[in-house]
Amino acid sequence: MADNPMLKFVAVGQDYPEKRAAEERNEDFAEISRKFAVAKAEEQSSRCSQCGVPYCSTHCPLHNHIPDWLRLTAEGRLREAYELSNATSSMPEICGRICPQDRLCEGNCVIEFSGHGAVTIGSVEKFITDTAWEQGWIEPLVPVADRSGQSVGIIGAGPAGLTTAEYLRKRGYDVHVYDRHDRAGGLLTYGIPGFKLEKDVVMRRVQRLKDGGIVFHEGFEVGRDATLEQLRAKHDALLIATGVYKARDIKAPGVGASGVVKALDYLIASNRKGFGDAVPDFDSGALDAAGKDVVVIGGGDTAMDCVRTAVRQGATSVKCLYRRDRENMPGSQREVANAEEEGVEFVWLSAPEAFDGEGAVSGVHVAKMRLGQPDASGRRAPEPDPQGGYRLNATLVIKALGFEPEELPKMFGAPELSVTRWGTLRVDHKTMQTSLEGVFAAGDIVRGASLVVWAIRDGRDVAERMHGFLKAKAKAVPKQKVAA
Ligand code: FAD
Ligand code: SF4
Ligand code: SF4
Predict the structure, then answer these.
(1) Does the domain spanning 254-400 belong to CATH 3.90.1150.10?
(2) What number does CATH give the domain 147-244+405-476?
(3) Quick one: which atom of ligand 2 is closest to the CA of 99?
(4) DSSP H or E run through 234
(5) 55 pocket-lining for ligand 3 (C-beta < 6 Å)
(6) Ligand 1 in reach of 303 Cβ (< 6 A)
Protein backbone atom coordinates (compact mmCIF):
# COMPACT_ATOMS: atom_id res chain seq x y z
CA MET A 1 0.00 0.00 0.00
CA ALA A 2 1.30 3.43 -0.90
CA ASP A 3 2.51 5.58 1.99
CA ASN A 4 -0.26 7.91 3.26
CA PRO A 5 0.92 11.45 2.47
CA MET A 6 -1.19 12.92 5.30
CA LEU A 7 -1.45 12.83 9.15
CA LYS A 8 2.20 13.77 9.61
CA PHE A 9 1.52 16.20 12.44
CA VAL A 10 3.44 14.21 15.04
CA ALA A 11 6.58 13.74 12.93
CA VAL A 12 6.49 17.16 11.22
CA GLY A 13 6.39 20.29 13.37
CA GLN A 14 4.37 23.42 12.65
CA ASP A 15 6.34 25.87 10.52
CA TYR A 16 5.24 29.25 9.16
CA PRO A 17 7.10 30.93 6.30
CA GLU A 18 10.18 32.65 7.67
CA LYS A 19 9.71 36.30 8.69
CA ARG A 20 12.31 38.82 7.58
CA ALA A 21 14.34 40.28 10.46
CA ALA A 22 12.68 43.34 12.03
CA GLU A 23 15.62 45.63 11.16
CA GLU A 24 15.32 44.65 7.51
CA ARG A 25 11.54 44.90 7.24
CA ASN A 26 11.40 48.27 9.03
CA GLU A 27 13.22 49.71 6.03
CA ASP A 28 10.45 49.03 3.50
CA PHE A 29 6.74 48.38 2.99
CA ALA A 30 7.12 44.92 1.49
CA GLU A 31 5.40 41.94 3.10
CA ILE A 32 7.24 40.65 6.13
CA SER A 33 7.14 36.90 5.38
CA ARG A 34 9.16 35.11 2.79
CA LYS A 35 7.46 32.60 0.50
CA PHE A 36 7.04 28.91 1.29
CA ALA A 37 9.27 26.77 -0.92
CA VAL A 38 7.25 24.09 -2.75
CA ALA A 39 8.62 21.28 -0.58
CA LYS A 40 7.77 23.21 2.61
CA ALA A 41 4.18 23.86 1.49
CA GLU A 42 3.77 20.16 0.68
CA GLU A 43 5.30 19.15 4.00
CA GLN A 44 3.14 21.53 6.03
CA SER A 45 -0.02 20.40 4.20
CA SER A 46 0.83 16.78 5.02
CA ARG A 47 0.31 17.54 8.72
CA CYS A 48 -3.47 17.70 8.24
CA SER A 49 -5.33 14.74 9.75
CA GLN A 50 -8.16 14.96 7.16
CA CYS A 51 -10.91 15.32 9.76
CA GLY A 52 -14.30 13.85 8.85
CA VAL A 53 -15.88 16.98 10.33
CA PRO A 54 -13.29 19.69 9.57
CA TYR A 55 -13.71 22.47 12.14
CA CYS A 56 -11.22 24.56 10.18
CA SER A 57 -13.70 24.71 7.33
CA THR A 58 -16.73 25.25 9.58
CA HIS A 59 -15.02 28.30 11.08
CA CYS A 60 -13.89 29.71 7.74
CA PRO A 61 -16.59 32.20 6.67
CA LEU A 62 -16.25 30.89 3.09
CA HIS A 63 -16.36 27.23 4.20
CA ASN A 64 -13.34 26.62 2.02
CA HIS A 65 -12.61 22.96 1.19
CA ILE A 66 -9.49 23.13 3.34
CA PRO A 67 -8.68 19.42 3.96
CA ASP A 68 -9.13 18.65 0.26
CA TRP A 69 -6.78 21.33 -1.02
CA LEU A 70 -4.27 20.48 1.71
CA ARG A 71 -4.28 16.86 0.55
CA LEU A 72 -3.84 17.87 -3.10
CA THR A 73 -0.95 20.15 -2.11
CA ALA A 74 0.70 17.39 -0.08
CA GLU A 75 0.38 15.12 -3.14
CA GLY A 76 2.04 17.73 -5.36
CA ARG A 77 -1.20 18.30 -7.33
CA LEU A 78 -0.98 22.07 -7.04
CA ARG A 79 -3.08 23.02 -10.02
CA GLU A 80 -6.00 20.96 -8.74
CA ALA A 81 -5.47 22.43 -5.27
CA TYR A 82 -5.72 25.90 -6.82
CA GLU A 83 -8.90 25.06 -8.72
CA LEU A 84 -10.58 23.77 -5.57
CA SER A 85 -9.45 26.70 -3.47
CA ASN A 86 -10.62 29.12 -6.16
CA ALA A 87 -14.05 27.48 -6.34
CA THR A 88 -15.18 29.02 -3.05
CA SER A 89 -13.21 32.28 -2.93
CA SER A 90 -12.71 35.24 -5.23
CA MET A 91 -9.35 36.10 -3.66
CA PRO A 92 -7.78 33.16 -1.78
CA GLU A 93 -4.25 34.61 -1.88
CA ILE A 94 -5.52 37.77 -0.17
CA CYS A 95 -7.36 35.87 2.59
CA GLY A 96 -4.28 33.68 3.06
CA ARG A 97 -2.34 36.86 3.79
CA ILE A 98 -4.69 38.90 5.96
CA CYS A 99 -7.37 36.75 7.58
CA PRO A 100 -6.95 36.54 11.35
CA GLN A 101 -6.41 32.78 11.02
CA ASP A 102 -5.82 32.40 14.75
CA ARG A 103 -9.49 33.30 15.30
CA LEU A 104 -10.89 31.44 12.26
CA CYS A 105 -9.58 28.35 10.46
CA GLU A 106 -6.28 27.74 12.28
CA GLY A 107 -7.69 28.61 15.70
CA ASN A 108 -10.16 25.76 15.23
CA CYS A 109 -7.82 23.14 13.77
CA VAL A 110 -7.96 19.94 15.85
CA ILE A 111 -4.19 19.63 15.73
CA GLU A 112 -3.98 22.92 17.57
CA PHE A 113 -6.21 21.47 20.29
CA SER A 114 -4.05 18.34 20.51
CA GLY A 115 -1.06 20.55 21.29
CA HIS A 116 0.86 20.05 18.03
CA GLY A 117 0.22 23.49 16.55
CA ALA A 118 -2.43 24.13 13.86
CA VAL A 119 -1.85 23.31 10.23
CA THR A 120 -0.56 26.56 8.67
CA ILE A 121 -3.68 26.86 6.50
CA GLY A 122 -3.44 30.55 5.57
CA SER A 123 0.17 30.29 4.41
CA VAL A 124 -0.64 27.26 2.26
CA GLU A 125 -3.69 29.02 0.80
CA LYS A 126 -1.54 32.02 -0.14
CA PHE A 127 1.12 29.73 -1.61
CA ILE A 128 -1.35 27.82 -3.80
CA THR A 129 -2.85 30.87 -5.53
CA ASP A 130 0.42 32.84 -5.73
CA THR A 131 1.81 29.79 -7.55
CA ALA A 132 -1.25 29.75 -9.83
CA TRP A 133 -0.57 33.40 -10.79
CA GLU A 134 3.11 32.64 -11.42
CA GLN A 135 2.31 29.59 -13.52
CA GLY A 136 -0.38 31.32 -15.57
CA TRP A 137 -3.15 29.05 -14.28
CA ILE A 138 -5.47 31.93 -13.36
CA GLU A 139 -8.01 31.97 -16.11
CA PRO A 140 -9.47 35.14 -17.59
CA LEU A 141 -12.94 36.12 -16.49
CA VAL A 142 -15.26 34.99 -19.28
CA PRO A 143 -19.04 35.45 -19.09
CA VAL A 144 -20.72 32.03 -19.35
CA ALA A 145 -24.01 33.30 -20.78
CA ASP A 146 -25.13 36.41 -22.61
CA ARG A 147 -27.37 38.40 -20.35
CA SER A 148 -26.14 41.68 -21.76
CA GLY A 149 -29.70 42.96 -21.85
CA GLN A 150 -29.51 43.43 -18.08
CA SER A 151 -27.13 45.65 -16.23
CA VAL A 152 -25.98 45.85 -12.64
CA GLY A 153 -24.51 48.83 -10.78
CA ILE A 154 -22.21 48.23 -7.84
CA ILE A 155 -21.35 51.10 -5.50
CA GLY A 156 -18.05 50.41 -3.77
CA ALA A 157 -15.03 48.55 -5.16
CA GLY A 158 -13.94 46.90 -1.90
CA PRO A 159 -13.83 43.12 -1.47
CA ALA A 160 -17.64 42.86 -1.22
CA GLY A 161 -18.26 44.87 -4.40
CA LEU A 162 -15.45 43.23 -6.38
CA THR A 163 -16.60 39.72 -5.47
CA THR A 164 -20.18 40.48 -6.51
CA ALA A 165 -18.94 42.09 -9.72
CA GLU A 166 -16.89 39.01 -10.59
CA TYR A 167 -19.66 36.48 -9.98
CA LEU A 168 -22.33 38.50 -11.81
CA ARG A 169 -20.07 39.21 -14.76
CA LYS A 170 -19.33 35.49 -14.98
CA ARG A 171 -23.08 34.98 -15.29
CA GLY A 172 -23.14 37.35 -18.25
CA TYR A 173 -24.51 40.62 -16.89
CA ASP A 174 -23.20 44.06 -17.83
CA VAL A 175 -21.48 45.16 -14.63
CA HIS A 176 -20.56 48.73 -13.70
CA VAL A 177 -18.59 49.45 -10.52
CA TYR A 178 -18.60 52.98 -9.06
CA ASP A 179 -16.00 54.07 -6.51
CA ARG A 180 -15.08 57.46 -5.12
CA HIS A 181 -11.40 56.59 -5.02
CA ASP A 182 -9.20 56.75 -8.09
CA ARG A 183 -8.20 53.09 -7.66
CA ALA A 184 -10.41 50.09 -6.95
CA GLY A 185 -9.89 47.72 -4.01
CA GLY A 186 -11.44 49.65 -1.10
CA LEU A 187 -9.54 49.07 2.12
CA LEU A 188 -7.43 46.41 0.39
CA THR A 189 -5.88 49.23 -1.63
CA TYR A 190 -5.93 52.27 0.63
CA GLY A 191 -6.44 50.95 4.20
CA ILE A 192 -4.32 47.86 4.72
CA PRO A 193 -0.58 48.62 4.41
CA GLY A 194 1.76 46.90 1.96
CA PHE A 195 3.66 45.06 4.69
CA LYS A 196 0.49 42.98 5.22
CA LEU A 197 -0.74 42.98 1.63
CA GLU A 198 1.42 44.14 -1.26
CA LYS A 199 -0.52 46.32 -3.66
CA ASP A 200 0.31 44.48 -6.87
CA VAL A 201 -1.52 41.47 -5.36
CA VAL A 202 -4.69 43.60 -5.24
CA MET A 203 -4.13 45.36 -8.56
CA ARG A 204 -3.69 42.14 -10.55
CA ARG A 205 -7.11 41.02 -9.24
CA VAL A 206 -8.68 44.34 -10.28
CA GLN A 207 -7.02 44.15 -13.71
CA ARG A 208 -8.46 40.67 -14.28
CA LEU A 209 -11.95 42.06 -13.63
CA LYS A 210 -11.34 44.99 -16.00
CA ASP A 211 -10.06 42.60 -18.68
CA GLY A 212 -13.23 40.54 -18.15
CA GLY A 213 -15.38 43.47 -19.27
CA ILE A 214 -16.43 44.95 -15.93
CA VAL A 215 -16.63 48.72 -16.34
CA PHE A 216 -15.03 50.69 -13.50
CA HIS A 217 -16.09 54.29 -12.87
CA GLU A 218 -13.24 55.43 -10.61
CA GLY A 219 -13.38 58.83 -8.91
CA PHE A 220 -17.19 58.61 -9.03
CA GLU A 221 -18.86 59.41 -5.73
CA VAL A 222 -22.50 58.50 -5.36
CA GLY A 223 -24.15 61.42 -3.63
CA ARG A 224 -21.90 63.89 -5.47
CA ASP A 225 -21.77 62.63 -9.07
CA ALA A 226 -25.17 60.92 -9.09
CA THR A 227 -28.02 60.23 -6.71
CA LEU A 228 -29.02 56.69 -5.86
CA GLU A 229 -32.23 57.22 -7.83
CA GLN A 230 -30.30 58.15 -10.98
CA LEU A 231 -28.29 54.94 -10.74
CA ARG A 232 -31.44 52.95 -10.06
CA ALA A 233 -32.90 54.27 -13.28
CA LYS A 234 -29.77 53.23 -15.17
CA HIS A 235 -29.42 49.65 -13.92
CA ASP A 236 -31.68 46.66 -13.41
CA ALA A 237 -30.27 46.09 -9.92
CA LEU A 238 -27.90 47.93 -7.60
CA LEU A 239 -25.54 46.85 -4.85
CA ILE A 240 -24.43 49.17 -2.08
CA ALA A 241 -21.07 47.97 -0.72
CA THR A 242 -19.64 51.25 0.53
CA GLY A 243 -17.99 50.10 3.77
CA VAL A 244 -17.86 52.20 6.95
CA TYR A 245 -15.80 55.38 7.00
CA LYS A 246 -16.97 57.76 9.72
CA ALA A 247 -14.08 57.80 12.20
CA ARG A 248 -14.95 57.69 15.91
CA ASP A 249 -13.48 60.72 17.65
CA ILE A 250 -12.05 61.58 21.05
CA LYS A 251 -13.60 64.25 23.23
CA ALA A 252 -10.69 65.84 25.06
CA PRO A 253 -9.22 69.35 25.33
CA GLY A 254 -6.70 70.09 22.60
CA VAL A 255 -7.90 67.33 20.27
CA GLY A 256 -8.24 69.91 17.48
CA ALA A 257 -4.49 70.74 17.52
CA SER A 258 -2.65 70.24 14.26
CA GLY A 259 -0.75 66.97 14.34
CA VAL A 260 -3.73 65.08 15.81
CA VAL A 261 -4.89 63.12 12.77
CA LYS A 262 -7.33 60.40 11.73
CA ALA A 263 -5.97 56.90 11.16
CA LEU A 264 -7.44 56.44 7.72
CA ASP A 265 -6.16 59.81 6.43
CA TYR A 266 -2.74 58.73 7.64
CA LEU A 267 -2.89 55.24 6.11
CA ILE A 268 -4.36 56.43 2.80
CA ALA A 269 -1.56 58.99 2.45
CA SER A 270 1.06 56.32 3.15
CA ASN A 271 -0.50 53.85 0.71
CA ARG A 272 -0.73 56.56 -1.96
CA LYS A 273 2.98 57.30 -1.54
CA GLY A 274 3.56 53.58 -2.09
CA PHE A 275 1.85 53.98 -5.47
CA GLY A 276 4.15 56.94 -6.21
CA ASP A 277 1.37 59.57 -6.02
CA ALA A 278 1.95 63.19 -5.05
CA VAL A 279 0.21 63.59 -1.68
CA PRO A 280 0.34 67.23 -0.52
CA ASP A 281 -0.48 66.42 3.13
CA PHE A 282 2.27 63.85 3.24
CA ASP A 283 4.77 65.86 1.23
CA SER A 284 4.23 68.84 3.57
CA GLY A 285 5.14 66.56 6.50
CA ALA A 286 1.68 66.72 8.11
CA LEU A 287 0.94 63.02 7.57
CA ASP A 288 4.54 61.80 7.62
CA ALA A 289 5.85 60.29 10.88
CA ALA A 290 9.55 60.76 9.98
CA GLY A 291 11.49 62.19 12.92
CA LYS A 292 8.40 62.45 15.14
CA ASP A 293 7.33 61.09 18.50
CA VAL A 294 4.21 59.21 17.49
CA VAL A 295 1.35 58.19 19.78
CA VAL A 296 -1.37 56.01 18.27
CA ILE A 297 -4.60 55.76 20.23
CA GLY A 298 -6.58 52.52 19.91
CA GLY A 299 -6.12 48.76 20.24
CA GLY A 300 -7.58 47.34 17.04
CA ASP A 301 -6.02 46.26 13.78
CA THR A 302 -6.14 49.80 12.38
CA ALA A 303 -4.01 50.99 15.31
CA MET A 304 -1.56 48.14 14.66
CA ASP A 305 -1.30 49.18 11.01
CA CYS A 306 -0.63 52.80 12.04
CA VAL A 307 2.13 52.03 14.53
CA ARG A 308 3.90 49.75 12.08
CA THR A 309 3.59 52.31 9.29
CA ALA A 310 5.07 55.00 11.56
CA VAL A 311 8.08 52.77 12.30
CA ARG A 312 8.70 52.35 8.57
CA GLN A 313 8.41 56.09 7.94
CA GLY A 314 11.29 56.66 10.38
CA ALA A 315 9.51 57.92 13.50
CA THR A 316 11.77 58.72 16.47
CA SER A 317 9.50 56.79 18.84
CA VAL A 318 6.18 54.97 18.44
CA LYS A 319 3.79 54.25 21.30
CA CYS A 320 0.38 52.63 21.21
CA LEU A 321 -2.01 53.82 23.89
CA TYR A 322 -4.85 51.46 24.75
CA ARG A 323 -7.37 51.71 27.58
CA ARG A 324 -7.63 47.96 28.27
CA ASP A 325 -4.80 45.45 28.66
CA ARG A 326 -3.21 43.07 26.19
CA GLU A 327 -5.63 40.21 26.92
CA ASN A 328 -8.66 42.45 26.33
CA MET A 329 -7.60 44.21 23.16
CA PRO A 330 -9.52 43.67 19.91
CA GLY A 331 -6.43 43.60 17.66
CA SER A 332 -4.73 40.38 16.64
CA GLN A 333 -2.02 39.10 19.00
CA ARG A 334 0.03 38.17 15.95
CA GLU A 335 0.06 41.83 14.89
CA VAL A 336 1.00 43.00 18.40
CA ALA A 337 3.93 40.59 18.37
CA ASN A 338 5.00 41.86 14.93
CA ALA A 339 4.75 45.47 16.14
CA GLU A 340 6.78 44.75 19.28
CA GLU A 341 9.50 43.07 17.24
CA GLU A 342 9.61 46.22 15.10
CA GLY A 343 10.15 48.46 18.12
CA VAL A 344 6.66 49.69 19.03
CA GLU A 345 5.98 50.27 22.71
CA PHE A 346 2.51 49.36 24.01
CA VAL A 347 1.16 51.44 26.85
CA TRP A 348 -1.71 49.38 28.26
CA LEU A 349 -4.48 50.62 30.56
CA SER A 350 -4.06 54.19 29.40
CA ALA A 351 -6.45 56.73 27.86
CA PRO A 352 -5.84 60.26 26.56
CA GLU A 353 -7.20 63.04 28.79
CA ALA A 354 -5.93 66.10 26.96
CA PHE A 355 -3.51 67.17 24.25
CA ASP A 356 -1.16 70.10 24.67
CA GLY A 357 0.84 72.35 22.41
CA GLU A 358 0.57 75.84 20.94
CA GLY A 359 -1.25 75.14 17.68
CA ALA A 360 0.74 72.00 16.95
CA VAL A 361 0.46 69.07 19.34
CA SER A 362 3.44 68.49 21.63
CA GLY A 363 2.18 66.01 24.20
CA VAL A 364 -0.62 63.79 25.49
CA HIS A 365 -1.88 63.77 29.07
CA VAL A 366 -2.67 60.19 29.89
CA ALA A 367 -5.11 58.84 32.49
CA LYS A 368 -4.26 55.49 34.01
CA MET A 369 -7.11 53.01 33.72
CA ARG A 370 -8.05 49.77 35.44
CA LEU A 371 -10.47 47.04 34.43
CA GLY A 372 -13.91 46.87 36.04
CA GLN A 373 -16.85 44.54 35.37
CA PRO A 374 -17.45 43.04 31.91
CA ASP A 375 -19.49 45.31 29.61
CA ALA A 376 -22.11 44.38 26.97
CA SER A 377 -19.37 43.01 24.68
CA GLY A 378 -18.22 40.66 27.47
CA ARG A 379 -14.90 42.47 27.80
CA ARG A 380 -14.01 44.08 31.12
CA ALA A 381 -14.88 47.76 30.98
CA PRO A 382 -12.04 50.21 31.63
CA GLU A 383 -12.48 52.85 34.34
CA PRO A 384 -10.13 55.60 35.57
CA ASP A 385 -7.58 54.41 38.10
CA PRO A 386 -7.43 56.87 41.01
CA GLN A 387 -3.65 56.44 41.02
CA GLY A 388 -3.55 59.22 38.44
CA GLY A 389 -1.78 59.83 35.15
CA TYR A 390 1.25 61.17 33.36
CA ARG A 391 2.34 62.98 30.20
CA LEU A 392 3.91 61.64 27.02
CA ASN A 393 5.76 63.68 24.39
CA ALA A 394 3.99 63.50 21.08
CA THR A 395 4.45 65.41 17.84
CA LEU A 396 2.07 63.23 15.85
CA VAL A 397 -1.05 61.69 17.40
CA ILE A 398 -3.07 59.21 15.34
CA LYS A 399 -6.66 58.48 16.37
CA ALA A 400 -7.57 54.87 15.58
CA LEU A 401 -10.76 54.33 17.54
CA GLY A 402 -12.83 52.55 14.92
CA PHE A 403 -15.35 53.41 12.26
CA GLU A 404 -19.07 53.90 11.92
CA PRO A 405 -21.29 54.13 8.84
CA GLU A 406 -21.72 57.44 7.11
CA GLU A 407 -25.28 58.78 6.79
CA LEU A 408 -26.08 57.07 3.53
CA PRO A 409 -29.77 58.06 3.15
CA LYS A 410 -28.72 61.71 3.38
CA MET A 411 -25.57 61.33 1.28
CA PHE A 412 -27.37 59.41 -1.46
CA GLY A 413 -30.45 61.68 -1.46
CA ALA A 414 -32.52 58.61 -0.57
CA PRO A 415 -34.39 59.21 2.71
CA GLU A 416 -36.44 56.05 2.17
CA LEU A 417 -33.28 53.88 2.44
CA SER A 418 -33.78 52.22 5.82
CA VAL A 419 -30.93 52.03 8.35
CA THR A 420 -30.52 50.35 11.74
CA ARG A 421 -29.92 52.31 14.92
CA TRP A 422 -26.19 51.85 14.33
CA GLY A 423 -26.49 53.49 10.89
CA THR A 424 -25.76 50.26 8.99
CA LEU A 425 -28.08 49.45 6.09
CA ARG A 426 -31.12 47.40 7.02
CA VAL A 427 -31.48 44.38 4.75
CA ASP A 428 -33.86 41.46 4.54
CA HIS A 429 -31.46 38.69 5.50
CA LYS A 430 -33.07 36.21 3.10
CA THR A 431 -32.98 38.40 0.01
CA MET A 432 -30.15 40.76 1.05
CA GLN A 433 -32.31 43.53 -0.37
CA THR A 434 -32.60 46.93 1.32
CA SER A 435 -35.88 48.76 1.84
CA LEU A 436 -35.69 49.76 -1.85
CA GLU A 437 -36.76 47.23 -4.48
CA GLY A 438 -33.79 46.01 -6.52
CA VAL A 439 -31.21 47.68 -4.25
CA PHE A 440 -29.06 45.16 -2.38
CA ALA A 441 -26.34 45.70 0.23
CA ALA A 442 -23.32 43.73 1.45
CA GLY A 443 -20.07 43.95 3.41
CA ASP A 444 -19.19 46.36 6.21
CA ILE A 445 -22.08 48.72 5.42
CA VAL A 446 -24.41 45.93 6.59
CA ARG A 447 -22.26 44.22 9.24
CA GLY A 448 -20.40 47.23 10.64
CA ALA A 449 -16.58 47.15 10.60
CA SER A 450 -15.70 43.50 10.02
CA LEU A 451 -13.24 41.42 7.98
CA VAL A 452 -12.26 41.01 4.35
CA VAL A 453 -13.28 37.36 4.36
CA TRP A 454 -16.80 38.27 5.53
CA ALA A 455 -17.07 40.91 2.79
CA ILE A 456 -16.12 38.22 0.24
CA ARG A 457 -18.68 35.85 1.70
CA ASP A 458 -21.37 38.54 1.49
CA GLY A 459 -20.34 39.33 -2.08
CA ARG A 460 -20.68 35.66 -3.02
CA ASP A 461 -24.10 35.40 -1.37
CA VAL A 462 -25.51 38.66 -2.69
CA ALA A 463 -24.46 37.79 -6.25
CA GLU A 464 -26.69 34.70 -6.02
CA ARG A 465 -29.61 36.75 -4.64
CA MET A 466 -29.19 39.43 -7.32
CA HIS A 467 -29.05 36.78 -10.05
CA GLY A 468 -32.34 35.34 -8.77
CA PHE A 469 -33.90 38.80 -8.72
CA LEU A 470 -32.66 39.65 -12.23
CA LYS A 471 -33.88 36.36 -13.70
CA ALA A 472 -37.34 36.98 -12.24
CA LYS A 473 -37.28 40.54 -13.53
CA ALA A 474 -36.31 39.41 -17.04
CA LYS A 475 -39.24 36.98 -17.08
CA ALA A 476 -41.67 39.55 -15.72
CA VAL A 477 -40.85 42.32 -18.20
CA PRO A 478 -42.08 40.60 -21.41
CA LYS A 479 -45.30 39.63 -19.57
CA GLN A 480 -45.89 43.26 -18.57
CA LYS A 481 -45.24 44.30 -22.15
CA VAL A 482 -47.83 41.77 -23.42
CA ALA A 483 -50.35 43.00 -20.82
CA ALA A 484 -49.74 46.58 -21.94
P1 FAD B 1 -14.48 48.62 1.79
O2 FAD B 1 -13.27 47.78 1.64
O3 FAD B 1 -14.44 49.69 2.80
O4 FAD B 1 -14.81 49.25 0.37
C5 FAD B 1 -15.85 50.18 0.21
C6 FAD B 1 -15.60 51.00 -1.03
O7 FAD B 1 -16.72 51.86 -1.23
C8 FAD B 1 -14.39 51.93 -0.92
O9 FAD B 1 -13.54 51.72 -2.02
C10 FAD B 1 -14.99 53.33 -0.93
O11 FAD B 1 -14.17 54.27 -1.62
C12 FAD B 1 -16.28 53.11 -1.69
N13 FAD B 1 -17.31 54.13 -1.40
C14 FAD B 1 -17.75 54.52 -0.18
N15 FAD B 1 -18.70 55.47 -0.31
C16 FAD B 1 -18.86 55.67 -1.65
C17 FAD B 1 -19.69 56.53 -2.42
N18 FAD B 1 -20.55 57.37 -1.85
N19 FAD B 1 -19.58 56.50 -3.77
C20 FAD B 1 -18.70 55.65 -4.38
N21 FAD B 1 -17.89 54.81 -3.68
C22 FAD B 1 -17.97 54.81 -2.34
N23 FAD B 1 -9.77 42.88 7.59
C24 FAD B 1 -9.13 41.70 7.55
O25 FAD B 1 -9.75 40.68 7.28
N26 FAD B 1 -7.79 41.63 7.80
C27 FAD B 1 -7.04 42.73 8.05
O28 FAD B 1 -5.83 42.63 8.25
C29 FAD B 1 -7.69 43.99 8.06
N30 FAD B 1 -6.97 45.12 8.28
C31 FAD B 1 -7.62 46.32 8.23
C32 FAD B 1 -6.87 47.47 8.39
C33 FAD B 1 -7.48 48.71 8.35
C34 FAD B 1 -6.67 49.94 8.51
C35 FAD B 1 -8.89 48.79 8.21
C36 FAD B 1 -9.58 50.12 8.22
C37 FAD B 1 -9.65 47.65 8.04
C38 FAD B 1 -9.02 46.40 8.05
N39 FAD B 1 -9.74 45.22 7.86
C40 FAD B 1 -9.08 44.03 7.83
C41 FAD B 1 -11.19 45.26 7.61
C42 FAD B 1 -11.52 45.11 6.12
O43 FAD B 1 -10.65 45.91 5.37
C44 FAD B 1 -12.98 45.44 5.83
O45 FAD B 1 -13.80 44.63 6.64
C46 FAD B 1 -13.34 45.18 4.36
O47 FAD B 1 -12.48 45.89 3.49
C48 FAD B 1 -14.79 45.57 4.08
O49 FAD B 1 -15.06 45.41 2.72
P50 FAD B 1 -16.20 46.24 1.99
O51 FAD B 1 -16.13 45.81 0.56
O52 FAD B 1 -17.47 46.10 2.72
O53 FAD B 1 -15.79 47.78 2.14
FE1 SF4 C 1 -8.67 30.57 6.77
FE2 SF4 C 1 -9.46 32.93 5.87
FE3 SF4 C 1 -8.57 31.13 4.19
FE4 SF4 C 1 -10.91 30.75 5.38
S5 SF4 C 1 -10.40 32.35 3.93
S6 SF4 C 1 -9.28 29.24 5.08
S7 SF4 C 1 -10.52 31.69 7.38
S8 SF4 C 1 -7.38 32.11 5.78
FE1 SF4 D 1 -6.84 19.32 8.76
FE2 SF4 D 1 -6.88 20.82 11.02
FE3 SF4 D 1 -8.81 21.03 9.21
FE4 SF4 D 1 -8.62 18.81 10.66
S5 SF4 D 1 -9.10 20.84 11.43
S6 SF4 D 1 -9.03 18.95 8.45
S7 SF4 D 1 -6.41 18.66 10.85
S8 SF4 D 1 -6.66 21.54 8.89
Answers:
(1) no
(2) 3.50.50.60
(3) 2
(4) helix 228-234
(5) yes
(6) no
